[in-house]
Specification:
72 residues; mainly alpha; 3 helices
Length: 72
């Protein structure tokens, strides 16, 4: 069951492109590492962002493998 507090945030970040999603994840990780517990639910947010990053990488790999038919 999804956390009702984090669900809207995960919907928002799932629409971000890969570079912005990566930067957001990296920034939150650095902030959480330097100053623990400054952001509530930071660990859960990082897990969700990491999942979205991996899903985004898999989706990008699938699009690159498509071979176009030669033009006639």
């Amino acid at each position: 069951m999804a956390n009702p507090l984090l669900a809207p945030l995960m919907r928002f970040v799932s629409k971000l492109s890969y570079p912005r999603l990566f930067l957001l994840t990296a920034a939150l990780f650095v902030i959480d590492t330097l100053v623990p517990d400054i952001v509530p639910f930071a660990d859960e947010i990082l897990l969700g962002l990491g999942t979205l990053l991996l899903a985004n990488l898999r989706g990008r790999k699938g699009r690159d493998d498509v071979i176009d038919a030669p033009p006639r």
